Amino acid sequence: MIVKIVALTDQGLILAKQIKNFVENSEVLFKPKPFIQTVQNEFKQGHRLILICATGIAVRTLAPVLKDKYQDPAVLVLDEQGEFVIPLLSGHEGGANEFAQKIADKLKGKLVQTTAKSYTKPIYTIGLGCERDCPISYVQTLISEALKSTNLEMSQIQSINSIDIKADEQAFMSLSMLLNKPFNTFDVQTLSKVEDQLSIKSEYVFNTVGVYGVAESAALCGASKSTENEAELVLNKIKNAKATVSIAKSYL
Q: Is 0.85 surpassed by the pTM of this model?
């Protein structure tokens, strides 16, 4: 996920460079010209934006190219000192709320969030699948890749999850201890309840274990279990030769 940090003043540039140091895949744009066209183009390409400027400038610049909350990328607005971080667009669906919280925490600033309070604390869970007796390294590699691609840290993960027939999988049990995260497993009946949310349904997996996808189903069930609310996928399953990993979230 590409992040463009736009600064219009010298003080804003100092902040932009500070943010770039801890936001992966980010680039600083200082006084880009033409300003409106540049920012609109970055937005239309789906890049996340961190705009260090007045909220009014951000609104007037982006208004002509807005589509809807399901398609627009996350946009944050910050003051020059980084005291206030505002998730301006795509708070829920685009992940701006969580992104803004992460930025605010790093800068020791204040999150200014106007969306529903029930969505202020996301809970993330990891779903795992693997071949029997899979080496732990295969799973660790995928988890690292998953966290990097979603801009999440392990500290934000609530639990790791899988199907009940993997309750004795050594790699998963070892990871639970290593990461100090609960390891939950779910039976086929429970996992089947989230079947309609899977990004892809594998007939091979269904014929083998009784569900159309282990990692995604387990991630979704783990998130729902943690919050007792509906969950959604943050990362569709990724895989290597021996394992699969997915990430889901729900809200307290």
A: no
